[in-house]
Amino acid sequence: MKKVKLNFGLIIVLSLITFFTEPAFTQNKSGTTIGQFLKIEPSSRIVAIGNAGASLFGGISSVFYNPASLGRLESNDIEFTYNKWLADITYNYMAAGVKIEGIGTFALIGTMLNSGEMDVRTVEQPLGTGERFSVKNFALGLGYGLMITDRVSVGLQVNYITEMIWHSSLTTVGLNFGVQYQLMDKGLTLGASFSNFGARASYDGRDLWLNYDIDPRKYGDNDQLPAEFRTDAFALPTIFRAGLSYKFSFDKDYSVLIAADAIHQNDNSQSISVGTEISLLEYFNIRAGYRNLFLPDLEGGLVLGGGIKKDIAGSYNIRFDYAYADYGRLTETHRITIGLGF
């Protein structure tokens, strides 16, 4: 029975890879989706491994790449990420997971992006009107992961998403789900996931209100009729990831992890991300990778990083991870993640 279940898990992964990637790799719709902040990767560890996270697990922020990683979480875990994003935009991420034996792992995930205040400029007043505005994006997610066999895990995450630009906003709901299959203990692992599968949404708010004159050539009519611009509804940036990873363990003090993902987005071309992690003395990690290989008009791609992990009193561990990502002419970003397992 166990062998049948394991083979069934492998069939799930391979079926997802075969069925979804081939027809999906045919279109490029850059700039046609909302919720772009949902594509910013939060895990300093996985970012430094080239963002190849579909098959990785171990920390709670792995849920961003594949909710099935929740099922493999060994203990309760909390992570916080600060990301100095492009153009001085601030990005913060928090994830907490609680493991309940015999039931599964539950997670709470929060993401916030803030542009900071900017001057309101118009054609008539290009130097500014004296007003200030900002862009704020927020997502709150609830996740659940479970080991359905000793090697197959599945996961699901539901997200409440809102975007605000000055006095206008949109709100929608997105769904993430995935599966991971570990072919051998501490060896080859396969993973596949869908992120941001949800309803289309459009902006609404008083920035879209205006006074309208039906016929400006006619005098004496009401030229202050209340009206409103209607915006189109756009989809979320749906992402399909399929990946694999393999860990070479030479002894208890030295191991090398290699990971690769094939990625398709509904608003961009397909790409491949690859990376590696070298673990030394069970405390230190050195990481490097390259993301979005074969993506047209790619700006940068190199990622580097490292981390430290320290066990305390046998039941706690503290982690500190850093990642540098090159974005070409857009300069670079720096992420710092602090984690606590207990």
Q: How would you portray this structure in words?
A:
This protein is mainly β and 342 residues long. The protein has helices at 2-24, 44-47; strands spanning 77-84, 90-100, 104-114, 118-119, 132-133, 135-147, 152-165, 168-182, 189-198, 204-205, 209-212, 225-228, 239-251, 254-265, 271-280, 284-293, 302-312, 316-326, 332-341. The strands form three sheets. A 14-stranded antiparallel β-barrel has the order 1-2-3-6-7-8-9-13-14-15-16-17-18-19. The longest helix has 23 residues, at 2-24. Mean pLDDT is 87; it is low at 1-6 and 15-26.
H and E string: HHEEEEEEEEEEEEEEEEEEE
Distance between the termini: 34 Å
* Class computed from helices, strands and strand pairing: mainly beta
Number of discrete helical segments: 2
Let me know the largest β-sheet: 14 strands, antiparallel, barrel
Oligomer classification? single chain
Number of strands: 19
